[in-house]
Amino acid sequence: MQPLIPDYLDEVLAAVAPSSSGETASYIPELAAADPERLGAVFATVDGEVYGAGDVDVEFTIQSISKPFAYALALSDRGFAPVLEKVGVEPSGEAFNEISLERDTGRPRNPMINAGAMTTHSLAGAEGMKPAERVERVIRWLSAFAGRDLEVDETVCASEMESAHRNLAIAHMLRSYGILTEDPRGVVDGYIRQCSVLVSARDLAMMAATLANRGINPLSDEQVVDQAVVRQVLSVMATCGMYDAAGDWATQIGIPAKSGVAGGLIGALPGQLGIATFSPRLDSHGNSVRGVSLFERFSSDMGLHVMEVPPAGREVVRSNRVRGEGPDRTRILRLQGGIRFAGAERIVREVLDSALSEPRVVLDVSLVHSIDDVARRMLLEVARRLSLDGHQVVLLDPETIIPEPDPGDGGSLTVVHEPEEALNPGVADRWERSDWGQRLS
Ligand code: GLN
Protein backbone atom coordinates (compact mmCIF):
# COMPACT_ATOMS: atom_id res chain seq x y z
CA MET A 1 0.00 0.00 0.00
CA GLN A 2 1.14 3.55 -0.74
CA PRO A 3 1.28 5.77 2.34
CA LEU A 4 -1.67 8.17 2.52
CA ILE A 5 -0.33 11.33 4.10
CA PRO A 6 2.44 12.21 1.57
CA ASP A 7 -0.11 11.90 -1.23
CA TYR A 8 -2.48 14.18 0.64
CA LEU A 9 0.28 16.75 1.22
CA ASP A 10 1.27 16.68 -2.49
CA GLU A 11 -2.35 17.26 -3.39
CA VAL A 12 -2.89 20.28 -1.12
CA LEU A 13 0.43 21.79 -2.13
CA ALA A 14 -0.58 21.52 -5.78
CA ALA A 15 -3.91 23.16 -4.96
CA VAL A 16 -2.36 26.28 -3.37
CA ALA A 17 0.72 26.47 -5.61
CA PRO A 18 -0.79 28.71 -8.34
CA SER A 19 -1.56 31.53 -5.89
CA SER A 20 0.89 34.39 -6.27
CA SER A 21 -0.74 36.96 -4.03
CA GLY A 22 1.13 38.71 -1.28
CA GLU A 23 4.67 40.07 -1.12
CA THR A 24 7.89 38.97 0.53
CA ALA A 25 8.78 41.09 3.57
CA SER A 26 10.32 44.29 2.29
CA TYR A 27 11.44 46.00 5.48
CA ILE A 28 14.26 43.49 5.84
CA PRO A 29 16.08 43.86 2.49
CA GLU A 30 17.56 40.37 2.57
CA LEU A 31 14.09 38.79 3.01
CA ALA A 32 12.70 40.78 0.09
CA ALA A 33 15.18 38.90 -2.07
CA ALA A 34 13.92 35.43 -1.06
CA ASP A 35 12.62 33.07 -3.75
CA PRO A 36 8.86 33.66 -3.51
CA GLU A 37 8.00 30.35 -5.17
CA ARG A 38 9.30 28.17 -2.37
CA LEU A 39 6.56 26.00 -0.97
CA GLY A 40 6.66 23.18 1.55
CA ALA A 41 4.61 21.49 4.25
CA VAL A 42 5.50 19.03 6.99
CA PHE A 43 3.49 17.03 9.52
CA ALA A 44 5.37 15.63 12.51
CA THR A 45 3.39 13.33 14.78
CA VAL A 46 3.92 13.22 18.53
CA ASP A 47 5.44 9.75 18.17
CA GLY A 48 8.09 11.02 15.77
CA GLU A 49 6.77 10.20 12.29
CA VAL A 50 7.54 12.96 9.79
CA TYR A 51 5.70 13.48 6.51
CA GLY A 52 6.67 16.23 4.11
CA ALA A 53 6.07 17.55 0.64
CA GLY A 54 7.76 20.29 -1.40
CA ASP A 55 10.60 22.38 0.04
CA VAL A 56 10.89 20.67 3.41
CA ASP A 57 14.66 21.00 3.83
CA VAL A 58 15.22 24.48 2.42
CA GLU A 59 16.46 26.76 5.19
CA PHE A 60 15.03 30.18 5.97
CA THR A 61 15.09 32.40 9.04
CA ILE A 62 12.76 31.55 11.88
CA GLN A 63 11.80 35.19 12.61
CA SER A 64 8.76 35.53 14.86
CA ILE A 65 8.28 31.78 15.15
CA SER A 66 11.12 32.02 17.67
CA LYS A 67 8.86 34.08 19.94
CA PRO A 68 6.80 31.33 21.60
CA PHE A 69 9.96 29.31 22.22
CA ALA A 70 11.84 32.28 23.69
CA TYR A 71 8.78 32.91 25.87
CA ALA A 72 9.01 29.30 27.04
CA LEU A 73 12.66 29.89 27.92
CA ALA A 74 11.94 33.05 29.91
CA LEU A 75 9.18 31.24 31.82
CA SER A 76 11.47 28.29 32.51
CA ASP A 77 14.45 30.40 33.55
CA ARG A 78 12.68 33.06 35.60
CA GLY A 79 9.37 31.50 36.63
CA PHE A 80 5.87 32.67 35.72
CA ALA A 81 5.40 35.63 38.06
CA PRO A 82 8.48 37.68 37.07
CA VAL A 83 7.69 37.18 33.38
CA LEU A 84 3.98 38.02 33.73
CA GLU A 85 4.90 41.14 35.63
CA LYS A 86 6.68 42.41 32.54
CA VAL A 87 4.70 40.92 29.64
CA GLY A 88 0.92 40.44 29.51
CA VAL A 89 -1.09 37.68 27.85
CA GLU A 90 -3.84 39.75 26.23
CA PRO A 91 -4.32 39.68 22.47
CA SER A 92 -3.47 43.16 21.24
CA GLY A 93 -5.41 43.08 17.99
CA GLU A 94 -2.53 45.10 16.63
CA ALA A 95 0.21 44.57 14.07
CA PHE A 96 3.27 42.63 15.21
CA ASN A 97 5.47 45.73 15.19
CA GLU A 98 2.97 48.17 16.70
CA ILE A 99 4.58 50.76 18.96
CA SER A 100 2.18 50.29 21.85
CA LEU A 101 2.35 49.32 25.49
CA GLU A 102 -0.32 48.90 28.19
CA ARG A 103 -1.38 52.36 29.31
CA ASP A 104 -0.95 52.07 33.07
CA THR A 105 1.90 49.58 33.44
CA GLY A 106 3.95 50.12 30.29
CA ARG A 107 3.90 46.34 29.80
CA PRO A 108 3.79 44.92 26.29
CA ARG A 109 0.39 43.26 25.84
CA ASN A 110 1.71 39.83 24.92
CA PRO A 111 4.93 37.99 24.06
CA MET A 112 4.02 37.49 20.40
CA ILE A 113 4.25 41.14 19.36
CA ASN A 114 7.75 42.56 19.00
CA ALA A 115 7.56 44.65 22.20
CA GLY A 116 6.72 41.54 24.21
CA ALA A 117 9.19 39.37 22.35
CA MET A 118 12.11 41.71 22.98
CA THR A 119 11.15 41.78 26.64
CA THR A 120 10.98 37.98 26.89
CA HIS A 121 14.31 37.77 25.08
CA SER A 122 15.77 39.96 27.82
CA LEU A 123 14.33 37.56 30.43
CA ALA A 124 16.02 34.45 29.02
CA GLY A 125 18.79 33.09 31.21
CA ALA A 126 19.62 34.18 34.73
CA GLU A 127 19.40 37.83 35.67
CA GLY A 128 22.53 39.72 34.68
CA MET A 129 23.57 37.25 31.98
CA LYS A 130 25.66 38.92 29.28
CA PRO A 131 23.72 39.59 26.03
CA ALA A 132 26.02 37.40 23.94
CA GLU A 133 25.69 34.45 26.34
CA ARG A 134 21.95 34.96 26.42
CA VAL A 135 21.63 34.71 22.63
CA GLU A 136 23.69 31.52 22.72
CA ARG A 137 21.34 30.17 25.34
CA VAL A 138 18.32 31.02 23.18
CA ILE A 139 19.88 29.35 20.12
CA ARG A 140 20.70 26.19 22.08
CA TRP A 141 17.15 26.18 23.41
CA LEU A 142 15.64 26.47 19.91
CA SER A 143 18.01 23.67 18.82
CA ALA A 144 16.71 21.35 21.55
CA PHE A 145 13.18 21.80 20.19
CA ALA A 146 14.36 21.10 16.64
CA GLY A 147 16.52 18.18 17.74
CA ARG A 148 19.62 19.46 15.92
CA ASP A 149 22.15 22.33 16.22
CA LEU A 150 20.74 25.43 14.58
CA GLU A 151 22.80 28.34 13.25
CA VAL A 152 22.33 32.02 12.55
CA ASP A 153 22.06 33.46 9.03
CA GLU A 154 24.56 36.31 9.44
CA THR A 155 23.47 38.05 6.23
CA VAL A 156 19.81 38.27 7.19
CA CYS A 157 20.82 39.24 10.72
CA ALA A 158 23.02 42.11 9.49
CA SER A 159 20.35 43.19 7.03
CA GLU A 160 17.68 43.45 9.72
CA MET A 161 20.09 45.10 12.14
CA GLU A 162 20.72 47.89 9.63
CA SER A 163 17.04 48.70 9.31
CA ALA A 164 15.94 48.02 12.88
CA HIS A 165 14.73 51.56 13.60
CA ARG A 166 11.27 50.51 14.61
CA ASN A 167 12.42 47.76 16.96
CA LEU A 168 14.97 50.17 18.43
CA ALA A 169 12.20 52.72 19.00
CA ILE A 170 10.11 50.08 20.79
CA ALA A 171 13.08 48.95 22.88
CA HIS A 172 13.89 52.49 23.96
CA MET A 173 10.29 52.96 24.98
CA LEU A 174 10.45 49.75 26.99
CA ARG A 175 13.62 51.01 28.64
CA SER A 176 11.97 54.30 29.56
CA TYR A 177 9.15 52.40 31.32
CA GLY A 178 11.66 50.24 33.16
CA ILE A 179 10.40 47.08 31.43
CA LEU A 180 13.86 46.68 29.96
CA THR A 181 16.52 47.35 32.53
CA GLU A 182 19.59 47.29 30.33
CA ASP A 183 20.97 48.87 27.17
CA PRO A 184 18.11 48.58 24.63
CA ARG A 185 20.56 48.24 21.74
CA GLY A 186 21.95 44.97 23.14
CA VAL A 187 18.44 43.56 23.56
CA VAL A 188 17.48 44.46 19.98
CA ASP A 189 20.71 42.89 18.70
CA GLY A 190 20.04 39.70 20.64
CA TYR A 191 16.40 39.55 19.59
CA ILE A 192 17.27 40.03 15.90
CA ARG A 193 19.90 37.29 16.17
CA GLN A 194 17.25 35.05 17.68
CA CYS A 195 14.98 35.85 14.70
CA SER A 196 17.81 35.07 12.26
CA VAL A 197 18.21 31.43 13.28
CA LEU A 198 18.02 29.18 10.20
CA VAL A 199 15.41 26.44 10.16
CA SER A 200 13.70 24.24 7.61
CA ALA A 201 10.01 23.33 7.56
CA ARG A 202 11.09 19.94 8.89
CA ASP A 203 12.79 21.61 11.90
CA LEU A 204 9.77 23.78 12.56
CA ALA A 205 7.39 20.83 12.44
CA MET A 206 9.55 19.03 15.00
CA MET A 207 9.61 22.13 17.21
CA ALA A 208 5.83 22.34 17.01
CA ALA A 209 5.52 18.60 17.65
CA THR A 210 7.57 19.05 20.83
CA LEU A 211 4.96 21.53 22.05
CA ALA A 212 2.17 19.17 20.93
CA ASN A 213 3.91 16.36 22.80
CA ARG A 214 3.87 18.03 26.25
CA GLY A 215 7.37 19.39 25.83
CA ILE A 216 9.05 16.11 24.90
CA ASN A 217 10.92 16.12 21.59
CA PRO A 218 9.43 13.12 19.74
CA LEU A 219 12.74 12.16 18.16
CA SER A 220 15.28 12.72 20.93
CA ASP A 221 12.74 11.87 23.66
CA GLU A 222 14.22 14.73 25.64
CA GLN A 223 11.88 16.64 27.98
CA VAL A 224 12.84 20.02 26.59
CA VAL A 225 10.35 22.08 28.58
CA ASP A 226 7.96 21.68 31.46
CA GLN A 227 4.30 20.84 30.77
CA ALA A 228 2.98 23.88 32.62
CA VAL A 229 5.12 26.10 30.41
CA VAL A 230 3.84 24.32 27.28
CA ARG A 231 0.25 25.02 28.30
CA GLN A 232 1.03 28.70 28.80
CA VAL A 233 2.82 28.95 25.46
CA LEU A 234 0.09 27.13 23.49
CA SER A 235 -2.57 29.33 25.07
CA VAL A 236 -0.74 32.46 24.03
CA MET A 237 -0.17 31.08 20.54
CA ALA A 238 -3.89 30.33 20.28
CA THR A 239 -4.93 33.84 21.30
CA CYS A 240 -2.10 36.04 20.00
CA GLY A 241 -0.03 34.00 17.57
CA MET A 242 -1.45 35.52 14.42
CA TYR A 243 -1.38 39.16 15.58
CA ASP A 244 -4.33 41.21 14.34
CA ALA A 245 -5.64 38.16 12.46
CA ALA A 246 -5.71 36.07 15.64
CA GLY A 247 -9.52 36.06 15.97
CA ASP A 248 -10.10 35.01 12.37
CA TRP A 249 -7.47 32.34 12.77
CA ALA A 250 -8.86 31.03 16.05
CA THR A 251 -12.38 30.72 14.68
CA GLN A 252 -11.65 29.46 11.18
CA ILE A 253 -8.57 27.33 11.67
CA GLY A 254 -8.41 26.77 15.40
CA ILE A 255 -4.85 25.51 15.73
CA PRO A 256 -2.43 27.26 18.14
CA ALA A 257 -0.01 28.81 15.68
CA LYS A 258 2.79 31.24 15.02
CA SER A 259 3.94 32.90 11.83
CA GLY A 260 7.22 34.52 10.81
CA VAL A 261 7.98 37.16 8.16
CA ALA A 262 10.36 34.85 6.27
CA GLY A 263 7.27 32.80 5.33
CA GLY A 264 7.28 30.08 7.96
CA LEU A 265 4.16 29.09 9.86
CA ILE A 266 3.76 26.52 12.60
CA GLY A 267 0.76 24.94 14.26
CA ALA A 268 0.79 22.69 17.31
CA LEU A 269 -2.13 20.39 17.89
CA PRO A 270 -1.96 19.15 21.49
CA GLY A 271 -1.53 15.40 21.68
CA GLN A 272 -1.58 14.96 17.91
CA LEU A 273 0.99 16.67 15.77
CA GLY A 274 3.16 19.61 14.83
CA ILE A 275 2.64 21.23 11.44
CA ALA A 276 4.91 23.59 9.55
CA THR A 277 4.56 25.32 6.21
CA PHE A 278 6.91 27.52 4.24
CA SER A 279 5.95 30.00 1.54
CA PRO A 280 7.52 33.49 1.60
CA ARG A 281 4.82 35.77 0.21
CA LEU A 282 2.95 37.51 3.04
CA ASP A 283 -0.49 39.06 3.50
CA SER A 284 -1.08 42.47 5.07
CA HIS A 285 -0.77 41.00 8.58
CA GLY A 286 2.66 39.57 7.83
CA ASN A 287 1.36 35.99 7.65
CA SER A 288 2.29 33.68 4.77
CA VAL A 289 -0.54 33.73 2.20
CA ARG A 290 -0.19 30.17 0.98
CA GLY A 291 0.70 29.02 4.49
CA VAL A 292 -2.65 30.30 5.74
CA SER A 293 -4.42 28.57 2.81
CA LEU A 294 -2.66 25.33 3.62
CA PHE A 295 -3.67 25.52 7.27
CA GLU A 296 -7.27 26.25 6.27
CA ARG A 297 -7.25 23.06 4.27
CA PHE A 298 -5.48 21.01 6.93
CA SER A 299 -7.93 22.15 9.55
CA SER A 300 -11.07 21.40 7.54
CA ASP A 301 -9.84 18.27 5.71
CA MET A 302 -8.47 16.65 8.85
CA GLY A 303 -10.88 18.07 11.44
CA LEU A 304 -8.02 19.67 13.36
CA HIS A 305 -9.84 22.64 14.94
CA VAL A 306 -9.09 22.42 18.68
CA MET A 307 -12.62 23.56 19.52
CA GLU A 308 -14.13 20.74 17.49
CA VAL A 309 -16.34 19.04 20.05
CA PRO A 310 -15.79 15.28 20.01
CA PRO A 311 -18.93 13.20 19.40
CA ALA A 312 -20.82 13.12 22.73
CA GLY A 313 -18.26 11.10 24.68
CA ARG A 314 -18.44 7.43 23.76
CA GLU A 315 -19.94 6.00 26.88
CA VAL A 316 -17.30 5.50 29.53
CA VAL A 317 -19.56 2.95 31.20
CA ARG A 318 -19.67 0.11 28.67
CA SER A 319 -21.81 -2.15 30.83
CA ASN A 320 -23.15 -2.41 34.35
CA ARG A 321 -24.13 -5.97 35.32
CA VAL A 322 -24.64 -8.20 38.31
CA ARG A 323 -23.14 -11.70 38.42
CA GLY A 324 -23.35 -14.54 40.95
CA GLU A 325 -25.71 -15.39 43.77
CA GLY A 326 -25.99 -14.68 47.48
CA PRO A 327 -22.74 -13.64 49.12
CA ASP A 328 -20.99 -13.95 45.74
CA ARG A 329 -23.18 -11.35 44.09
CA THR A 330 -20.88 -9.04 42.25
CA ARG A 331 -21.59 -5.79 40.50
CA ILE A 332 -19.32 -5.35 37.48
CA LEU A 333 -18.87 -1.90 35.99
CA ARG A 334 -16.96 -2.15 32.73
CA LEU A 335 -15.39 1.17 31.90
CA GLN A 336 -13.84 2.16 28.60
CA GLY A 337 -12.06 4.80 26.55
CA GLY A 338 -10.30 7.91 27.76
CA ILE A 339 -11.62 9.16 31.10
CA ARG A 340 -11.41 12.78 32.13
CA PHE A 341 -13.61 14.85 34.44
CA ALA A 342 -16.89 14.45 32.55
CA GLY A 343 -16.37 10.70 32.13
CA ALA A 344 -15.57 10.29 35.83
CA GLU A 345 -18.69 12.25 36.74
CA ARG A 346 -20.68 9.84 34.57
CA ILE A 347 -19.20 6.90 36.49
CA VAL A 348 -20.02 8.48 39.86
CA ARG A 349 -23.62 8.96 38.67
CA GLU A 350 -23.84 5.39 37.41
CA VAL A 351 -22.74 4.12 40.81
CA LEU A 352 -25.22 6.35 42.65
CA ASP A 353 -28.10 5.48 40.31
CA SER A 354 -27.42 1.76 40.70
CA ALA A 355 -27.98 1.92 44.48
CA LEU A 356 -25.53 -0.96 44.88
CA SER A 357 -26.51 -3.73 47.25
CA GLU A 358 -24.01 -6.39 46.11
CA PRO A 359 -21.26 -7.41 48.53
CA ARG A 360 -18.64 -7.00 45.82
CA VAL A 361 -18.09 -4.29 43.23
CA VAL A 362 -15.65 -4.71 40.34
CA LEU A 363 -14.37 -1.62 38.55
CA ASP A 364 -13.06 -3.07 35.30
CA VAL A 365 -10.65 -0.68 33.56
CA SER A 366 -9.35 -3.23 31.02
CA LEU A 367 -10.75 -1.17 28.14
CA VAL A 368 -9.67 2.20 29.50
CA HIS A 369 -6.80 3.58 27.43
CA SER A 370 -6.18 6.74 29.44
CA ILE A 371 -7.32 8.35 32.63
CA ASP A 372 -6.23 11.80 33.68
CA ASP A 373 -5.32 12.86 37.18
CA VAL A 374 -8.70 14.24 38.23
CA ALA A 375 -10.58 11.21 36.85
CA ARG A 376 -8.17 8.84 38.60
CA ARG A 377 -8.73 10.62 41.92
CA MET A 378 -12.51 10.57 41.43
CA LEU A 379 -12.50 6.85 40.62
CA LEU A 380 -10.41 6.07 43.69
CA GLU A 381 -12.74 8.18 45.80
CA VAL A 382 -15.66 6.11 44.47
CA ALA A 383 -13.73 3.00 45.55
CA ARG A 384 -13.03 4.49 48.97
CA ARG A 385 -16.64 5.45 49.62
CA LEU A 386 -17.95 2.09 48.42
CA SER A 387 -15.49 0.24 50.65
CA LEU A 388 -16.50 2.41 53.63
CA ASP A 389 -20.11 1.48 52.85
CA GLY A 390 -19.08 -2.15 53.33
CA HIS A 391 -18.53 -3.36 49.78
CA GLN A 392 -15.46 -5.24 48.74
CA VAL A 393 -14.13 -3.14 45.89
CA VAL A 394 -12.03 -4.79 43.20
CA LEU A 395 -10.09 -2.97 40.52
CA LEU A 396 -9.55 -5.11 37.43
CA ASP A 397 -6.56 -3.43 35.82
CA PRO A 398 -4.56 -5.79 33.56
CA GLU A 399 -2.43 -3.02 32.02
CA THR A 400 -1.85 -1.12 35.26
CA ILE A 401 -3.47 2.00 33.91
CA ILE A 402 -3.78 3.16 37.54
CA PRO A 403 -0.30 2.44 38.89
CA GLU A 404 -0.70 3.31 42.57
CA PRO A 405 -4.36 2.83 43.39
CA ASP A 406 -4.35 4.45 46.81
CA PRO A 407 -8.01 4.41 47.89
CA GLY A 408 -7.38 7.17 50.44
CA ASP A 409 -8.28 7.48 54.12
CA GLY A 410 -9.91 4.37 55.49
CA GLY A 411 -10.61 2.91 52.07
CA SER A 412 -9.54 -0.45 50.79
CA LEU A 413 -9.21 -1.72 47.29
CA THR A 414 -8.29 -5.11 45.86
CA VAL A 415 -6.34 -5.01 42.63
CA VAL A 416 -6.46 -7.89 40.15
CA HIS A 417 -4.91 -8.28 36.74
CA GLU A 418 -6.87 -11.20 35.26
CA PRO A 419 -10.64 -11.26 34.61
CA GLU A 420 -11.01 -14.64 36.40
CA GLU A 421 -9.56 -13.15 39.57
CA ALA A 422 -12.14 -10.37 39.59
CA LEU A 423 -14.85 -12.77 40.71
CA ASN A 424 -12.53 -14.57 43.07
CA PRO A 425 -10.12 -12.01 44.36
CA GLY A 426 -9.09 -13.93 47.44
CA VAL A 427 -5.46 -14.18 46.42
CA ALA A 428 -5.11 -10.82 44.79
CA ASP A 429 -3.18 -7.74 45.92
CA ARG A 430 -4.98 -5.45 48.27
CA TRP A 431 -4.17 -1.80 48.81
CA GLU A 432 -5.12 -0.09 52.01
CA ARG A 433 -4.39 3.41 53.10
CA SER A 434 -2.97 2.29 56.42
CA ASP A 435 -0.56 0.00 54.58
CA TRP A 436 0.08 2.31 51.69
CA GLY A 437 2.84 1.01 49.51
CA GLN A 438 2.59 -2.53 50.87
CA ARG A 439 0.81 -5.34 49.20
CA LEU A 440 -1.35 -7.52 51.43
CA SER A 441 -2.56 -10.76 50.07
N1 GLN B 1 12.53 39.97 13.15
C1 GLN B 1 11.24 40.40 12.74
C2 GLN B 1 10.89 41.74 13.36
O1 GLN B 1 11.16 41.97 14.49
C3 GLN B 1 10.22 39.37 13.11
C4 GLN B 1 8.82 39.77 12.74
C5 GLN B 1 7.94 38.64 12.33
O2 GLN B 1 8.38 37.56 11.95
N2 GLN B 1 6.65 38.89 12.36
O3 GLN B 1 10.35 42.61 12.72
Features:
alpha+beta; single chain; binds glutamine; Beta-lactamase; 5-stranded antiparallel β-sheet; 2 domains; 16 helices
Please provide a written account of the structure:
The protein is 40% helix and 17% strand. With 441 residues, the chain is of the alpha+beta class. It has two domains: 4-302, Beta-lactamase (3-Layer(aba) Sandwich); 317-440, Transcription Regulator spoIIAA (2-Layer Sandwich). A six-stranded mixed β-sheet has the order 8-9-10-11-12-13. Strands 2-1-7-6-5 form a five-stranded antiparallel β-sheet. The protein has a two-stranded antiparallel sheet with strand order 3-4. Strand 5 and strand 6 form a beta hairpin. The longest helix is centred in the first third of the chain and has 16 residues, at 131-146. It binds glutamine. Glutamine binds at residues 63-64, 96-97, 114, 160, 167, 192, 195, 260-261, 286.
The backbone outline, from C-alpha atoms, is elongated
Distance between the termini: 51 Å
Please provide the count of β strands: 13
At CATH level 3, the topology of the largest domain is Beta-lactamase
CATH class of the largest domain: Alpha Beta
- What's the number of helices? 16
**Can you tell me the CATH superfamily of the largest domain?**
DD-peptidase/beta-lactamase superfamily
Count of structural domains: 2
CATH architecture of the largest domain: 3-Layer(aba) Sandwich
Radius of gyration from CA coordinates:
26 Å
Order of helices and strands: HHEEEHHHHHHHEHHHEEEHEEHEHEEHE
Biggest β-sheet description: 6 strands, mixed
Approximately how much beta-strand content do the residues carry?
Answer: 15-25%
Distinct small molecules bound, one entry per kind = glutamine
The helix-and-strand class reads alpha+beta
Helical percent range? 25-40%
Spans of at least 5 consecutive residues whose pLDDT stays below 50 are: 433-441
Strand line-up across the major sheet: 8-9-10-11-12-13
